[in-house]
């Protein structure tokens, strides 16, 4: 790699406010706020609204979309789009 063209990667704690969890990973993001991690070291902390601990896709709390209703509404609005639609 070329020197001095890549951002600095450092250990950062990401804290998920919705789930009340935190995880330590590497990132180029930085923050003025710091937190003491389990190993006793202090790391920058970034608060996030959603992570894999709280996102409905990963937690199994997904909502079922009303796809049939959307398709029907599309057909009512724009027609069926058949061969005569031109």
Number of helices: 2
The biggest sheet, with number of strands, parallel, antiparallel or mixed sense and barrel status, is: 4 strands, mixed
Mean pLDDT: 81
Question: How does the helix and strand content classify structurally?
Answer: alpha+beta
Beta content: 25-35%
Distance between the termini: 54 Å
> Could you give the order of the helices and strands?
EEEEHH
Strand count: 4
Contiguous runs where pLDDT drops below 50 for at least 5 residues: none
The outline comes out as elongated
Helix content: 10-25%
Largest sheet, spatial ordering of strands? 2-1-4-3
Please state the CA-atom Rg, rounded to the nearest Å: 23 Å
GO molecular function: structural constituent of ribosome
Protein name: 50S ribosomal protein L31
InterPro entries: Ribosomal_bL28/bL31-like_sf, Ribosomal_bL31, Ribosomal_bL31_B, Ribosomal_bL31_sf
Pfam families: Ribosomal_L31
């Amino acid at each position: 790699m070329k020197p001095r063209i890549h951002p600095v990667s450092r250990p950062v704690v990401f804290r998920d406010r919705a789930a009340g969890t935190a995880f330590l990973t590497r990132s180029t993001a930085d923050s003025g706020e710091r937190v003491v991690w389990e190993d006793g070291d202090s790391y920058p902390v970034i608060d996030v609204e959603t992570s894999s601990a709280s996102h409905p896709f990963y937690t199994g709390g997904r909502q079922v979309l009303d796809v049939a209703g959307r398709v029907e509404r599309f057909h009512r609005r724009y027609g069926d789009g058949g061969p005569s639609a031109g």
